[in-house]
Design brief:
Blueprint: E1 7-18, E2 21-22, E3 27-28, E4 32-33, E5 59-68, E6 73-82, E7 97-99, E8 101-102, H1 121-129, E9 140-142
Antiparallel strand pairs: 1-2, 1-3, 1-4, 1-5, 5-6, 6-8, 7-9
Length: 143
Amino acid sequence: MFGKYTPLRIRVECSLYHGCDKLAPTFCSKEVYFNNNVMFDQIISFEKLKICELPRKSRIAFNIVVIFQENYTLRIGCVSMNLFYAKSSKFKSGLIDLNVWPFYEIDERLGCMKEYNGMKHSDSKKVNKDHSLLHQFFTKLNL
C-alpha cells in the first residue's frame, strides 16, 4: 500500500477556520503507533479562544497524518465539520462520528468539504438491504 515505506506512527492535525481564515495555530495530537484502531484520547485545546468568541460559521478541520520509518509523512485523510448547528446556532457537543475523506488534505478554500459519503453502487445496494453494514464502508473519526 505504501510501497517500500513502513508506517510507524499516526497523528491528527486539527485547525479552526472561518471561511478561509485560520482562527488559531494548528493543534497536533500526540503521535501513536500505527494500527487499525487508533485511539488518541486527547483533549483538543485552542488556547485563548472562547466558544462565545467564535463566529457562528466556524468549522473544525482534521488531517490524518502517517509518519513512516524514514521520517517521511503522508496525509491519508481529512474531514471537517461546522462547530455550530445552522438553525439554532448552538455549539455541537457529545460523541460525533465523522466519515473521513480518503487520501485528501483539508483545503481551507473548500468549506463544503465536510463528511465523505461516497461509495460504489454495488456497496450501496448492500447497505440498503442491511443498514448495520454502513460502518464497514467508511473510515471514521470519532470526536
